[in-house]
């Protein structure tokens, strides 16, 4: 009988260990899914940020062009008035 009891205890210990590993793997899968979701959100936020920066850069470029046109016109008028 001693051999049978040892085998049953070993089987029970292996079953507990396998169950613990399965639960740990399920928890890790959940964490991995959350991290994947967070990573996708960050990528989306980075894309929005990049588009906003590009738009701001474009806006600044056109404002500078407009300002240069105004200054050129003001200088042109000032030169004409001197003549």
Summarize the structure.
The chain has 83 residues and is mostly helical.
Commentary on this structure:
- Helices cover 98% and strands 0% of the residues.
- The chain has 83 residues and is mainly α.
- It has one helix spanning 2-82.
- The termini are far apart.
Evaluate the radius of gyration: 35 Å
Strand content: under 5%
Main sheet characteristics: none
The level of helicity is over 70%
H/E series: H
- Structural classification: mainly alpha
Terminal Cα span: 122 Å
The gross shape turns out to be rod-shaped
- Individual helix count: 1
Low-confidence regions: none
Quick check: average pLDDT? 93
Break the fold down into its secondary structure elements and pairings.
Blueprint: H1 2-82
Descriptors for this entry?
rod-shaped, single chain, 0% strand, mainly alpha
């Amino acid at each position: 009988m001693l051999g049978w009891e040892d085998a049953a205890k070993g089987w029970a210990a292996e079953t507990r260990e396998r169950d613990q590993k399965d639960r740990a793997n399920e928890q890790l899968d959940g964490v991995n899914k959350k991290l994947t979701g967070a990573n996708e959100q960050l990528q989306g936020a980075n894309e929005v940020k990049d588009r906003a920066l590009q738009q701001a850069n474009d806006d600044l470029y056109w404002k500078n062009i407009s300002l240069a046109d105004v200054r050129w016109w003001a200088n042109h008028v000032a030169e004409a008035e001197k003549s």
